[in-house]
Amino acid sequence: MALDAAYFDSIYIEVVKRKYYDAAKVQAVFEDIRRRAEELNEENARLRRELEQHNERRVELGDALLSAQSVYQDVVDKARVRADAITAEAEKRSQALMAETRRESEQILARSRKQEENAARRVEAAFDRMKQLHLASVDALNAQWQAFLCSLDGEEEPESVQAEPRPAEPEPEELPADLEEKVGAIAQELFAMEQE
């Protein structure tokens, strides 16, 4: 029971002989008040200690929170710096790779053009050679045919046929292995063009 107004209102000490209070009862009331006051003092001291502990914990928690926030901010700042560095490095490497890829593409394209031009020259040379051989074969066949016709009539070969020397065949060049396929494809294309 606390030392409040209700407690003090509940104290009743009889007056003896209408003049004096009963000393034992007064003493008992004072003892009870002292005892309760000591209990209240002890409880008050305990509550103060708890309050101080709570305040200390609150301060510690506040310090820990500030420290955690500082560490968090440090981590975030370092992570941001690291992420920026990684992004910059990745962008730099990406640009270098793109430039290298572009260079390699241009080199491959240039080599491809040279190979195409070289292949076209070879095909053209082979075609010219075939044309010369074909014309020489036609001339030789024509000469043989005229000689045969002349022999049927009992005439001698015309001097133009006898005197005409055959053109010297040029030395064959070393031709690519797939020349026959390329020439066949060109012949098919020429034949298709003639059909149109």
Account of the 3D structure:
With 196 residues, the chain is mainly α. The chain has one domain (5-195). The chain is 81% helix and 2% strand. The chain has helices at 5-10, 23-153, 159-163, 179-195, and strands at 15-16, 20-21. The protein has a two-stranded antiparallel ribbon with strand order 1-2. Strand 1 and strand 2 form a beta hairpin. It is rod-shaped and about 195 Å long. The mean pLDDT is 79.
Short description:
By secondary structure, the protein is an all-alpha fold. It is built from 4 helices and 2 strands, in the order αββααα.
Q: Mind sketching the topology for me?
A:
Layout (H helix, E strand, L loop, with lengths): L4 H6 L4 E2 L3 E2 L1 H131 L5 H5 L15 H17 L1
